[in-house]
Please model this.
Amino acid sequence: MIANYGYKDGSGDYFIAIDTDKCDGCGKCVEACPAGVFEVVDEDPNDPFREEPLIIVVVDKRKKIKYECGPCKPPTNRPPLPCIEACPQDVISHSW
Amino acid sequence: MAEEKKQEFWRWTESNWKNPDIKWEDAKIVTAGIDVGSVSSQATVMTDGKIYAYSNMRTGSDSPDSARNALNYALEGTNMPESRIDYCIGTGYGRVNVPMADRSITEIACHARGAHFIYGPDVRTVLDVGGQDCKAIRCDEKGKVVNFLMNDKCAAGTGRGMEVFSDLLSVPIVDVGERSFQIKEEPEPVSSTCVVYAKTEATGLLRKGWEVNEVLAAYCSAMAERIFSLIERIGIEKGFAITGGMAKNKGVIDRMMKIIDLEAMKTDWDTQIAGAVGAALFGYALVQKGRKK
Model:
């Protein structure tokens, strides 16, 4: 499942997509993210029959990820994002 | 001073229904799903995986009360005691505040499952336009979610936005769709679907000499474009089902389907109950699996 967390408003689209089929909940992105955007949960909230751990975007961060992710996304010379770098399974992608 | 009389044009009718062909006394497993949304609440009671009764009501200020009212209204006239329900699942915004629920499941999973049930197994794309959010879901042949997106930060392009607009223009909400087509020429969509600026937008156009129906058409088509831009992100697959209250507004839906260039699927069920149906189905599956939590 591709879970898109985030929002769209007048200023643009801000979604973090998590490929839950690839994610094993190792939590490396949780350690890497300076803003605490991710967390590991024991079961997928959107799939009651999956019981393996995986990451989700923290509920309180979903409506402000544009700002939470802002520091990692300077307008010029953007370095690789720490969450994407840290993930061994290529689970995370950003829409902006 | 003259007494102020104000009609509430946004008010839609609450309803309940029960299946006259089913005797609940004969059922092996009775499950219930309660979907407490931001604007409306639904309860669906299922007997052995079939819809036995449902209700559709407005959500009050109190989630537990809304959940209870919805369930009581669904069970009205059925003589079924609440204790007969084997498993109850809460979903929607108020899902953690459903006192009789055995567990809660997110509305994403429930809507996909519910749409898959009420529209049939050909459903691949589900669009739920609720009171204060908009969900786009892609699912597989079993009703399992494969891709989803939810926008609940902005009320533009949601049911509540339409309610505000119908009130501003004094057009009953159920007539909005029909009246938006009673125009000579399709107008340009309004520049912003923002609910906060709805009044500015509407009065501005009326002052320019637009007719009410034209303003409705312009708003409906702006909303259609707005919703379309959201579903575009997850990709649109044939088997397009629309749930939630907005499915009943053909002013928005017909315009949106024209942009998508697909035919929307049809159902005889109330589109607003999809979430509650999905929840009750999950309950049924969980009881069958003997996985009560």
In short: The first strand of chain A starts at residue 2 and ends at 9.
